[in-house]
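okkk here we go again. third time trying to get the glutathione bound version out, last two times i messed up the smiles copy paste (missing a bracket lol). double checked this time i swear
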Amino acid sequence: MTDFDLYYWPVPFRGQFIRAILAHGGRSWGEHDGASIEEIINRDVDMQPISFMGPPVLIDRERQFALSQIPAIAMYLGERLDLIPTTSKGRSLTNKVDNDANDVLDELTLSGGRDMWTAQKWNSFVPRLQKWIRIFENTGTRNGLTADSNFMLDAEKLGVADIVTTILWVTVADRLPAMRQIIVDTSPTLWGLCERVAATDAIAALNRRSFQDYGNAYCGGEIEKSLRAVLV
Ligand SMILES: N[C@@H](CCC(=O)N[C@@H](CS)C(=O)NCC(=O)O)C(=O)O
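finally!!
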């Protein structure tokens, strides 16, 4: 029996944040096929493990506790696995980083594919994307991050803020090379952190396994096709 149970589509995207925190924390988790995920999405809210609209949903088996919404799950796991700072400033900044990352995912996918990318829309989005990259960089550098040392939040050890930041940028960069170029060119400092965190044993193993399990998929669906079409 695994420690946790994760409901998320068989692609990296949002689920990868949770997988990476669990992997770094040395915890096991089980996953579900698309039919089971659709089944719990479509249940009446009072029959869901936690009332929710869209996955991921994480179930902590030992504590019999279920949770949805990326920033909430990331904070829960951060506390549960001792991966967030103990100060209120550090905890709030972790929460800010988690929410920033979730906003970037919404923007990259035009709110989950409500609209599709065109070259014109992408070109006008690029300066905003670069600003997001600088926002992550600046959050780190205000707390001592440099290209080759330290972490996002002045912490002595790698935590949720570093994992979420790394998964956000490395996952898309590994699957969409044009994105890697934008990130590296905009912030060598941020990319330095991402490379260091991505090279740690558990996260490197997860990344390898994700390519085996999901191929080159990023977020899936028509929105991934439209993103790939503008990123040539
Ligand atoms: N705000 C939620 C967003 C959840 C979400 O949009 N999930 C997507 C997959 S990334 C989904 O399948 N949504 C189905 C739906 O909203 O009907 C979170 O942060 O977890």
